[in-house]
TrEMBL record:
Name of protein: LysR family transcriptional regulator
Protein's organism: Paenibacillus terrae (strain HPL-003)
HTH lysR-type domain ranges (all copies): 1-58
Organism taxonomic ancestry: Bacteria, Bacillati, Bacillota, Bacilli, Bacillales
Entry keywords, A to Z: DNA-binding, Transcription, Transcription regulation
GO CC terms: cytosol
Amino acid sequence: MDFLQLKYFQVTSKHEHVTRAANELYISQPALSKMIRNLETELGVQLFDREGKHIVLNEYGKKFLKRVNQSLSALEQGVTEVKEMKNEKVEIITLYVAVGSMLLPKLVGEFRDLYPQIRFNLTQHPAKIKKGLAYDFAITSEELTDNERAILLEEEILLGVPTSHPLSSQDTVFLKDLEHEKFVSLTPGNSLRKTTDRFFTHIPFEPDIVFESDDPATVRGLIQTGLGISFIPSILWRNVVTEGIKLIPISEPRCMRTIYLSWPTGELHTDIEKSFFEFIIRFFRDIAHHK
């Protein structure tokens, strides 16, 4: 199979209508139909179910489309990066960051002090990771499929409470004792929110979340003003926790998360990317050791 077959399949999948897809691609309907049949023959399965004049992507087609989208996205990004390298004589590192975004200015700045010719493409939107996003490295708290990974750090998750809250006098808390507390939280889908939701797997209640925000600074502000309690990462958030918040260890269950550096399985790294890998491992090691 070749690029044109994949592109034609992608456009046909979008429309689920051969005529409309052919019009967008500026080819004849018979030529497009033949291209799709040849692709199906090569794969040994039908990718569409035919319903009269209409076609519907079936389960084989949906699975194949997912990989086609990833492949074409990576190819298009590669073409763009090569052109930029040629024109600007720079190398580009594409970094997907789901956690620790507050560290980015320092991380990127220190690496560019060593390698001024490097340019970064940064993505900080977790939802995009499931839509075929191409990246060289990813910083996440989840184990990404089809990726190799290295552990950057493991950190304890603490309970942040207003200093005026009765819990602020305690040295430790149990999660099961927080049933009647009001929580403020990051929105569903956020990496930290996914982690903290799992803490309640074996607790006979769900947290009473009264405020949600997609901005960590807003969550911290809501705690500070006494509107609720929340979970605070002990390492990555320690330099941004404001006055008015008491951090309390959680004795049971022990609340932890792991931060990973991931990269697509089998990807060959350039010399600069290898240097960045070594740099980021040291960077997070230094952070973990300066608690």
